[in-house]
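The protein record minuted underneath.
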Amino acid sequence: MIYQTKELETKLKDEQSQEAVLLQQNAILLEPPRVASD
């Protein structure tokens, strides 16, 4: 049971980090580049 729980926790963390990366990529795509405005 402990092993399964650990596995589930890591799976959840992996999914969360993947989601965070996707959100970051989307934010970068949606935001106008600030370097160009400088």
User: Anything to note?
Assistant: The mean pLDDT is 80. The chain is about 85% helix and 0% strand. The CA atoms of residues 20 and 37 lie 26 Å apart.
